[in-house]
Amino acid sequence: MTENYHQSTPISTDLDFDTSTYVSSTTTVDPTFDYQSLKDLKDADGHEENGLEIEIPTEEPAASISVAEAIATMLVDLGIKTAFGVPGGAMASVWGALCNSSMEIIHCRHESGAAFSAVEAYFATNRPVVVFTTAGPGITNALTGLLAGRGEGAKVILISACTSAAQRGKWAIQETSTQTIPQAGIFTSGTLFNYATTVEVADQLPQISRRLALGLSQPGGYIVHLTIPTGVQTTCLVTPMPQSDLSHSLTTSSEETISKCVELLTEGPFAIWVGFGARGAAEEIRTLAERTGAAVMCSPRGKGIFPEDHPQYIGVTGLGGHASVTKYMEEQPPLRTLVLGTRLGEPTCFWNQAMVPAGGFIHVDIDPDVPGVAYPSAETFPIQSDIGMFLQALLKQIPESADSKTPSLPCPEKMTIEPGTSELVRPEVLLNAIQRVFVEGSDAIVMAESGNSFTWATNLLRIDRPNRYRVSTGVGSMGHMVAGVIGAAQARNGKALAIVGDGAMLMNNEVNTAVKYQIPAVWIVLNDARYNMCEQGMKMLGMQGADAQIPETDFVLVARGMGADGIRVESEADIEAALEKALASPGPFIVDVIIDPSRLAPSGARNKGLKAQKAKSSPVKEQVSFPMV
Questions:
Q1: Which of 169, 184, 467, 477 is the most exposed place for a label (fewest CB within 10 A)?
Q2: Domain 255-395 has CATH 3.40.50.1220
Q3: d(CA 601, CA 536)
Q4: Which CATH number applies to 65-237: 2.40.128.120, 3.40.50.2000, 2.40.50.140, 3.40.50.970?
């Protein structure tokens, strides 16, 4: 009897693998093989030679991939490395596929915390991030964080589950259908989501993949919602998935537009107003400023794009801003202002007419709908362009300033700190210590929560490079940075610091999540047992009877109860040592600072702006609100 077989050796993973050894023949019997004799083989027509009927061996079908597995693979191909979320039964298959992919999965304690974490992870790395939730409340819990991401310009993909078609309308557990949750805006593209769709059949995925690749490759933010019915998650994909291509071209302006800009900017002195959208063009902005002698100011989100210790820097505008900006506009007014990457929204300028120069604005933004909106009556030369591309073209044409010396410019005021008379910690003393220990003594990202934490940090900290300071000025949700700090720290694999109020810390935190994954996040809690922006605002408005106080919380006990470390600070003499301990901690750490609630948060520039608005307003009843008081 003659026996025949072929043996295949495993493919080597070594780089010097010799392809000639992949298939080799041998006549040595290998006991691990199941050999067949010629008697066992059929002829070409499928008949056994001895007349015995035997079954024809059939070729194994190609391995199929489920929708859940295809989605996980698609996300990895799109360059996504991290997903934050809270799982549930309705998305078990998708959750399992995510966990078995190369992505790092961060299981959070609340969907809103997952969404805020994802937003800040994106800004820490400039890489798109996934949020995953189950059906029903899992989706709705995540919406505030995703709305914040839309306003901030993040790239985040929400992957959720929904009720299968056959179960809709039957009161399924956490039913997610037209009968239970509004569809418009949540499951459809619109104000919240740049792109949203329900994956009803597997063959939709190739087109969805192309849509995602196109959207993620464009400049600006991109918030997506893909919801997959539970029954569809395990169905098989037959159509091959396309290869993701995230290459793109940047929008820039014509030579004629650049020449017009040069003409306008050289007619007289001009200022540069830097926004968060210009964070990728820090080097070009500095070169332009130093070549022309222009004064530079920034929005709250734009802190650090232009060094705040530079002699041409005049301060932050808007919420938590500096009076030095107002002084400059009054005493050394520019003919025009070059606006780079800011919408000039209320937190950036309060639409103060004193910020409008005589010659108006040259407003550059990637979004063509932005220029001219904030100040509709001001002369505005609008330019749609990537900020970096615009400045590179401008620098090729704009000449050096004719003046050999840059005029002395007002610089941001420094708060004078007198010897303390209270046993409580003054916020300004705390912020000065944060400047020394964290801003100057480390490379940590510094984040400030909504409320008085925002105004104290924005006004007092001095940031000298881009992508180190984060505040949210759009939605402005409390709890954003409390949760977002773990996203930033995890994504960059390094320290991130959140300066937060006790109200925000109680509202939403992911300390337990940070403990599980040993994320080196630090929370500095301004603990004054109240919503102090609200309390101070009501007092300024002369309104009585509103209660903004909350029971004092021991956040060190809270931290230790969840497995984190912490320290309480009740004296100004203990601040620096506590901050050094937090900086040195390898895991999550809370610094609970008992602050003086009577110290008014910085608001001088804000009040001046409002007075200017009121002087020109029509004789109607004034709007009453804070923090604009």
A1: 184
A2: yes
A3: 9
A4: 3.40.50.970
